[in-house]
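lol forgot to send this yesterday, sorry. struct tokens for the thing we talked abt
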């Protein structure tokens, strides 16, 4: 059975800081060097022998000063590296020499020992000064370190201290579990009872958990820290199985849930606990924190009504977490009207502007973009995609109306429509209403639908597409080649344009067969009386090949990235 090795939070912190100290082997080496230097000092001063150095003959006694300096240096280094122990060892070594030196000078009147006595006194003074000033520096260093690893409110270690402990456990190849614990309803205590009551609750939680970590009630070794606000971290090590871990968490839970009386008010605190295991879940410290947090948040979401309060991390949790976070961002953006769009130009093969594809854009809280590749699937799953599609469609129609008013040009705007949106009952009416309100004719619009629709919902989709065509719109089959549509579906589908997926264009110039494959898609498109556009064209070489094999249109970074509508407007004006 694994033994509980260290049951003190403070002890662990001390050990972590001491572990950085100079190794003991250096202490022994310095003593050895000092012994040799002292021996050589004494023997060189008492001999008349001569030695030859670099071809020159000299007295061995001429080196006495060098050996003496070497001894003194060892003593000083000893005090600097090993502080208290070093200082007392050095003092002992120096003081034991004094009686011998004094007797030689006073009783035997041997003046040649005078420099030795003088040097010893000077070194004693020097190392005492070093020792005393070192103590001040160390006390200062300690207070800085204490601040760096301690949470000022509760006195518990903080997240940084946890990171240090985790690094240490990883170095020792010890398994450990990180638990993220978040108090429930803590905010309401702050809001209703005031911040000082909230602080008192946190201090009491910290006191209870610290006591539990410091005593031997549990079978495992724990280290408790405060992460932020009402979030605590528990690092559990020295366990035999995860059953032991869960028992330990249960013990912390039970301790927390005991009645808490603060300023004559009773509080019954509860928390949600999520944990991740190192090395099973990850050996990367940041990931372990993230995973434990994700598990804790999963408990928070499920807790209401489900009674689960402790959960281990699984990869599904993080995906669900991510989805929830993205869903929240989409909802906020829709509510605050923050979904916007970019337009990516499409050209014919001679580089004449055909129009643009409208692409939805969403910004994260920090201003960075969230890719549609991430948010569109979430929007599809959560039923929000029709609102995004509609928003982008409305903005795109506004853009066309503006272009017509300003330039009189006829351009085509492609908008992406998800299957879900297309199948909505009032889809056609909504599409038509937007056009009528802006007085834009339908032949400016191309609807992009992925080829999967041909298989999933062929009949109803066909009906919808025929209605769109009847209005005068064009229809494009997006990402062609990535699905499983058969030629017969394609033949019966009233589309106007095939969009060859970027993945085929990427490979096109790498082998003959890939090039022939693209050429074949283009031929099929032409046989079926469709135009063909290549997506994701990034190089001039690709453009040359596509021209050779008869592709009609080009969309890709080579001729234009997605851009804000203002820039797209300028592009239309310039290309007139
Ligand atoms: P898509 O409809 O196939 O759009 C083309 C994607 O390829 C766009 O990515 C575009 O920025 C990117 N692209 C174009 N040329 C190049 C190139 O040369 N190199 C590279 N690396 N990429 C290129 P984006 O904007 O990230 O959109 C991704 C997908 O998200 C779209 O693929 C579409 O399926 C979906 N999407 C975007 N906006 C909407 C929308 O409003 N509604 C719906 N339902 N889906 C949308
Ligand atoms: Mg598209
Ligand atoms: Mg595409």
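and heres what i got for the seq, position by position
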């Amino acid at each position: 059975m694994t033994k509980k090795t260290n049951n003190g939070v403070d002890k662990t912190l001390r050990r972590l800081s001491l572990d950085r100290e100079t190794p003991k082997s250096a202490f022994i080496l310095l003593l050895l060097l000092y012994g040799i230097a002292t021996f050589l000092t004494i023997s060189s001063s008492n001999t008349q022998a001569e030695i030859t150095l670099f071809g020159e003959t000299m007295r061995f006694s001429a080196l006495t000063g060098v050996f003496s300096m070497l001894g003194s240096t060892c003593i000083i280094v000893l005090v600097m590296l090993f502080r208290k122990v070093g200082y007392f060892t050095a003092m002992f070594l120096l003081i034991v020499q004094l009686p011998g030196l004094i007797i030689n000078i006073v009783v035997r009147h041997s003046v040649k020992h005078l420099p030795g006595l003088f040097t010893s006194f000077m070194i004693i003074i020097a190392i005492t000064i070093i020792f005393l000033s070192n103590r001040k520096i160390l006390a200062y260093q300690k207070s800085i370190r204490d601040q760096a690893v301690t949470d000022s409110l509760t006195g518990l270690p903080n997240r940084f201290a946890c990171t240090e402990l985790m690094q240490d456990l990883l170095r020792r190849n010890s398994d450990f579990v990180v638990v993220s614990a978040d108090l429930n309803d803590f905010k309401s205590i702050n809001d209703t009872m005031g911040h000082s009551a909230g602080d008192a609750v946190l201090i009491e939680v910290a006191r209870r958990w610290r006591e539990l970590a410091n005593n031997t009630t549990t079978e495992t070794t724990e280290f408790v820290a405060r992460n932020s606000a009402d979030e605590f971290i528990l690092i559990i090590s020295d366990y035999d199985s995860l059953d032991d871990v869960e028992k330990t968490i249960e013990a912390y839970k039970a301790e927390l849930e005991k009645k808490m009386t603060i300023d004559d008010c009773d509080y019954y605190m509860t928390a949600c606990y999520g944990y991740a295991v190192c090395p099973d879940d990850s050996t990367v410290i940041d990931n372990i924190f993230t995973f434990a947090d994700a598990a804790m948040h999963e408990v928070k979401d499920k807790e209401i009504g489900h009674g689960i309060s402790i959960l281990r991390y699984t990869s599904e949790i993080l995906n669900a977490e991510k989805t929830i976070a993205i869903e929240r961002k989409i909802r906020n953006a829709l509510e605050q009207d923050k979904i916007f769009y970019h337009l990516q130009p499409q050209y014919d093969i001679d580089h004449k502007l055909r129009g643009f594809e409208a692409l939805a854009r969403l910004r994260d809280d920090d201003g960075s973009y969230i890719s549609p590749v991430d948010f569109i699937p979430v929007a599809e799953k959560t039923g929000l995609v029709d609102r995004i599609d509609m928003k982008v469609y409305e903005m795109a129609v506004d853009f066309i109306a503006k272009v017509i008013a300003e330039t009189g040009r006829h351009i085509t705007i492609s908008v992406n429509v998800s299957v879900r949106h297309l199948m909505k009952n009032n889809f056609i009416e909504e599409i038509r209403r937007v056009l009528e309100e802006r007085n834009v004719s339908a032949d400016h619009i191309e609807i992009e639908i992925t080829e999967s629709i041909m298989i999933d919902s062929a009949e109803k989709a066909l009906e919808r597409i025929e209605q769109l065509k009847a209005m005068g719109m064009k229809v494009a089959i997006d990402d062609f080649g990535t699905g499983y549509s058969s030629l017969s579906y394609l033949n019966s589908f009233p589309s106007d344009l095939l969009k060859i997926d970027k993945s085929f264009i990427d490979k096109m110039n790498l082998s003959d067969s890939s090039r022939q494959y693209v050429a074949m898609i283009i031929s099929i498109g032409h046989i079926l009386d469709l135009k063909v556009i290549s997506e994701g064209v990034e190089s001039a070489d690709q453009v040359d090949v596509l021209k050779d094999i008869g592709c009609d249109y080009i969309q890709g970074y080579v001729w234009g990235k997605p851009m804000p509508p203002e820039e797209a407007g300028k592009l239309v004006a310039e290309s007139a």
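Residues 324-574 form a domain with the TIM Barrel fold (CATH 3.20.20.450). anyway ping me if u want another try
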